[in-house]
Amino acid sequence: MFPERTGYIIWVSDLKAARNLEKYGSVHYLSRRMHYVVMYVNADRAEDIMKNVRKLSYVRKIERSYRNEIKTEYTKDAPDKTQYYGL
Questions:
Q1: Which keywords has UniProt assigned to this entry (predicted)?
Q2: Which of 17, 28, 62, 71 could pair covalently with 58 via S-S, beta carbons 3.0-4.6 A apart?
Q3: What is the pTM for the complete model shown?
Q4: CATH second-level architecture of 5-68?
Q5: Phi and psi at residue 15, in whole multiples of 5°?
């Protein structure tokens, strides 16, 4: 239903020019203070898009986001201690 997406953190030198990254994917966040852009692209075309983005003059560094690989299912190994702290 939804295509698989991959996140990238793109460090830029010019924020005004960084607005042009919209044509490569979805810009999720643009940090004015630290000069980076969080962007999501389709996973099947991600490598081709990042080759083109890397060639831009205002791009300093590109990092892949590991959010998809973080474990989000937790187990409850320790007993619940909240029952001992009643009001």
A1: Cytoplasm
A2: 17
A3: 0.78
A4: 2-Layer Sandwich (3.30)
A5: -70, -35
